[in-house]
Every structure is written in C-alpha cells, then in structure tokens.
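To the team - inosinic acid complex, inputs and output below.
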Amino acid sequence: MPAYAVIGAQWGDEGKGKIIDFLAENAAVIARYSGGNNAGHTVINDAGTFKLHLVPSGICWPHAMNVIGNGVVVDPDVLLKEINENDLDPSRLAVSDRAHLIMPYHISLDQLEEQRRGDAKIGTTGRGVGPAYIDKVSRQGLRVGELLDPEDLTLRLPAIVAFKNEIITKIYGGDPIELNAVFEKANMWAGQLAPYIRPVENLIADALESDGKVIIEGAQGALLDLDHGTYPYVTSSNPTVGGTLTGLGMGPRSYGGVAGVFKAYCTRVGEGPFPSEIHGEEGDSIREQAGEFGTTTGRARRIGWFDAVAGRYSARVNGFDAMIITKLDILDGWEEVNICVAYEIDGVRTEQFPVDAVTLDRAKPIYETHPGWTESTRSITKNSELNDGARAYIHRLEELIGVPTKILSTGPRREETLVIEDFLA
Ligand code: IMP
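Output:
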C-alpha cells in the first residue's frame, strides 16, 4: 500500500497533528521523519487533549504503529515522558536506532548560541535541535542505537563531553556539563528505551508491501526547511518532502499522495521575514481569538494574511497533489479577507518567492481583497454546509496554489473535519 505525506506548507503550526489523528484511523503506520521536540502537535478527540512533541500524532488509535525515523533528533527525556504519559508500549511505538540523540550539552549550546547572537537571533525553540543536527553532520553525534552499546559510549562520550565543555565554558562562559551525570542518564535511557529501538526502515518497507497505509507526518513547515526555507531563519532539518525519503529510508515510488497543510491565514514563530504579517491590534485580536501561542514554547505567534506567493512556492518544492486547509472557522465573521497574491520588491512586482531572507524582508505584499462571510463554518462536516463566501475563498486559494483541496478543518476536534475528497484513496 502506498505512503501518504502530510507536510506543513507554511512556517509550521498549520494544525498537522489534528489532521494526522483524523487520518490515522485508516493507517497502519504513522511515521515522523524530521525535526525533534521543537515541534508541538495538538490532538483533541474523545480521549482528551494531547500535546505531543516527539511521538507521532497517531498514538490515539490502538491499531496503529507509530514510528520515529532516523531523520528525527531524539531527546530521550522527552520521549520517555511522552511514552509514560500515553502508556505506549513497543507494539505501538518504534524509534530508529539511527536517529541522533539530543544530549544535555546540545540544549545548553542552543540557548547559549542564541544569547550570543543577540539582535541577530533566530528565535529557536531552545530544545537543542540545531546543535544535535550540527553534530550529526560533523560526525560527532551519538545515535539512539549507541545507547545499547555501553562500550561504544564509554569510548566516545568522554572526549565529546570534554570538547563541548571547552566550547560551553571558554567561548560562552557557561556552566560545564558533568560527564558522570551524562553517563547516568544514558544508562537510564538505555534501560527504558531498549524495547522501542529498532531498524524502522524494515518496519516501513513491510507495511508498504502489505495492506497497511503509511502516513508520513511532517513537523515544522516547508518555509522553515534548511534548504528551501527562509535561510538563515529556518530549522536545522528538511521538513519538505525530500526529507521523508532520507528521514525514513524509503523510495519515491512508495508515494500515493503528498498533501500540504495550509492554515487559512499564516503564522510564524521566531524571527525572520514574513511579508504578509498583520501588525498591531488586528493581528493581536486574531492571535487571541485563534489561540495562536506556541505549543512548545508558549510564544505568541506572529499573524499574517494567507500568502499565496509563498504557498505556490511551497507546493512546487514539495510536489503537493492535495491541499488540506485548517482553521477556516477563524475567518468566520470577518468583513473582508486579504490574500497576498504578489510582492513588490524594490518597486518591481513579482509572483516569485525570493527565498533569501534579505530580499524577502524587502518584499511588500500586494493584496487581493475578498468579501468575508457571516455564516459559521465551525464544526461543519458536509460540503453542502459550506457557505458561498468561504467556498469562493477556498476556490481562489486553489487557483493561486494550483492544487485541489481535499480536506477542510473546521475546529480543533477530530470530528470537526470536512472531507471533500478522500486523500488516502
Ligand atoms: P529550532 O528548530 O528550535 O532550531 O528553531 C528554528 C526556527 O524554527 C525558529 O524560528 C523556531 O521558532 C522555528 N520552529 C521550530 N519548530 C517549529 C514548529 O514546530 N512550529 C513553528 N516554528 C518552529
């Protein structure tokens, strides 16, 4: 059976968790491929409200296997907390032996590096994600599987910690990390995580060869992608579709569909250019109404109009064949809604998305204004219940992005979902 990717199409926080939980009813495997516990996915269903950072959003379905792929960076403290809080046994969760570990020194370094950047800070989540990926690339990382090899840890860890402590103390003036404390943690992690650690690419391949559908769960969003996002204001992994192949060890022919999850407007957390940002009271009132505060850090999200220039770019670099639009109900009752259809950069109109942050920062949004709608879209589940104003807005987004909408999310709960066309067909 094919795989279906559900990818953040903007700057993250598009509501992927809710969508994955909805789709997971019909999936055998739900797999994460990138990022770490910088992500925050909120899932609300009859069993309660779940705020997940690391484990996939399929955990509320007892039949489903949840997989953390090799492309993810794993903070074992966070993983164990989520395992315990959600009673996950190894028949429902597997972690790749080749996923890299977020170690205590990565968390210290993330925070120290941000402080040192001062005004040029990225606004990271401070969870050690960037430094863990740096170590992966510089071949100084430790992988989850190494927890099960104490000899290897005894050999490598002292030199790594000594080197990190030189950086922490001599460059940043921070407090050194205690080697013994790290060893103790590693032993504890090994004992508790051992049953979950597996070569997950086999598990994915087996599912693809059998009847089960595999849902690939995005974290962050395409515009935060290390290669395709608004560099340097990006995360340190590849949330775009390419990251799914390296982050899980699967081939492109496995795909049955790639959906981009778009919020009906835009948000961004952290620093970086955001051409359609709504400043002042209007933005503040949307933030309050929509509860736009980060699941991971609690930070206020910046609010903006739907940016079709960025959206079209995102659709291209991911090859989306479906749009999933979330938070449509937040726009109910607005007199007018704007869509950013082009930018003006240095006096010239363009419909191309300039990925480099300096140019993008000079982009002024060119808006198309649409009449709003007074009828509520909240909780609607049938196409016939969609009012004409909201339908026209969705159609215009489809035209601008060039991709059909398959699912509309009309509230945070699982059942507040309108399926226009089955994405997993
Ligand atoms: P990092 O991933 O913690 O290194 O942060 C890099 C940038 O990505 C910052 O602007 C963060 O706010 C942003 N970011 C990371 N994860 C998420 C997410 O799950 N949602 C939204 N923004 C995120």
